[in-house]
């Protein structure tokens, strides 16, 4: 087998000849800058926890002390898995208590004052507002407002976690660390914490947790928002194939999202000293267009090449291919032909030929 960089990838498309990029110090610096830019994209997700703001569908407890008539008996809500502050357990999952459901229009209906806008306010803000507008009806009203069921905001956790699914956002700030904890953590030995994907508003962010820890960035500072999707891929997605003229073709996993070209070749026990062409080590990287992969070429015939290979970082699904020398390819062709030639000679001798 031989990689022919000057031949079309798609035989039916003469324009599908890959553009081979030589691995140079400039390319390595460009790659490092791209990695830094990718990491900096995550920093915009960092923030401080904020108080929970009421949304449509939430259920509120509004208690006016010394005024039991304001707790309307027929406004009850069945507490289920989305309950926030109430205890849960056997016998409690269907507990019904007085509550005020926030309507789709963002309001709650309350005695004396009618519809009151609740959406976008914290419980304490709504409490202060209700106290103010109830003054004409109650002497020195004392109120307690709290959210008893969180139904307006949620995030989704998918992939290699213990308990994937929908997770409601409650008064406990929903950070990335909290989301993974509520999903019973990443499955040990299966989930890849170096390539966690966060989908938000049509944008995708790649999060490398070990790298963040290295930079002393706490995952609990990555705050999630309503409708965010957190996806933990399997570790099998982060492998690199090393093949060609190496001592032992092998698939290598990235470690914490990193694997240099040198490390990949080392995992294959190095290049074959008798058959490998050190000036023709290729890295083939798939792109959205299967006919136009990115191809990188390393000349490792000098010590500089080895230094570059140490700094050139591979990506999941890369293929590292070490080409054979011209003499090796010629020898292999001859080894295929010689048995046929020898057999023909023996046949001619048997019938008295030359």
UniProtKB/TrEMBL annotation:
Keywords: Cell outer membrane, Ion transport, Lipoprotein, Membrane, Palmitate, Polysaccharide transport, Porin, Signal, Sugar transport, Transmembrane, Transmembrane beta strand, Transport. One of its GO terms (cellular component) is cell outer membrane. Belongs to the BexD/CtrA/VexA family. Residues 1-10 have a biased composition (Basic and acidic residues). The keyword Chaperone does not apply. The keyword Transmembrane applies. Residues 153-232, 239-322 form the SLBB domain. Pfam families: Poly_export, SLBB_2. Residues 1-20 are annotated as: Disordered. Residues 48-147 form the Polysaccharide export protein N-terminal domain. It is found in: Cell outer membrane. GO terms for biological process: monoatomic ion transport. It comes from the Bacteria. This is Sugar transporter. One of its GO terms (molecular function) is polysaccharide transmembrane transporter activity. It is a multi-pass membrane protein.
């Amino acid at each position: 087998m031989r990689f022919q960089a000057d031949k079309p990838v798609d035989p039916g498309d003469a324009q599908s000849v890959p553009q081979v990029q030589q691995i140079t110090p400039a390319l390595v610096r460009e790659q490092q800058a791209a990695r830094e830019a990718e990491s900096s994209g995550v920093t915009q997700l960092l923030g401080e926890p904020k108080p929970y703001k009421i949304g449509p569908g939430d259920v509120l407890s509004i208690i006016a002390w010394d005024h039991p008539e304001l707790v309307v008996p027929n406004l009850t809500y069945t507490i289920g898995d989305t309950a926030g502050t109430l205890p849960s357990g056997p016998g409690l999952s269907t507990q019904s208590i007085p509550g005020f459901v926030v309507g789709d229009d963002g309001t709650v209906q309350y005695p004396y004052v009618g519809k009151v806008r609740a959406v976008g306010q914290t419980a304490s803000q709504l409490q202060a507002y209700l106290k103010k507008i109830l003054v004409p009806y109650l002497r020195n009203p004392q109120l307690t407002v709290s959210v008893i069921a969180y139904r307006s905001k949620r995030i989704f956790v998918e992939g290699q976690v213990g308990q994937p699914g929908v997770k409601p956002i409650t008064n406990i700030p929903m950070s990335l660390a909290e989301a993974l904890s509520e999903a019973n953590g990443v499955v040990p030995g299966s989930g890849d914490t170096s390539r966690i994907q966060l989908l938000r508003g049509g944008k995708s962010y790649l999060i490398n947790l070990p790298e963040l820890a290295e930079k002393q960035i706490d995952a609990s500072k990555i705050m999630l928002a309503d409708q965010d999707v957190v996806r933990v891929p399997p570790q099998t997605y982060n492998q690199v194939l090393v093949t060609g003229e190496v001592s032992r073709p092998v698939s290598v996993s990235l470690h914490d999202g990193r694997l240099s070209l040198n490390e990949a070749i080392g995992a294959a026990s190095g290049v074959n000293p008798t058959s490998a062409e050190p000036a023709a080590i290729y890295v083939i990287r798939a792109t959205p267009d299967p006919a136009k992969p990115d191809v990188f070429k390393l000349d490792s015939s000098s010590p500089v090449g080895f230094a570059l290979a140490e700094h050139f970082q591979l990506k999941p699904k890369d293929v590292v291919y070490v080409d054979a020398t011209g003499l090796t390819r010629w020898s292999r062709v001859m080894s295929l032909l010689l048995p046929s030639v020898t057999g023909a000679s023996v046949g001619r001798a048997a019938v008295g030929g030359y």
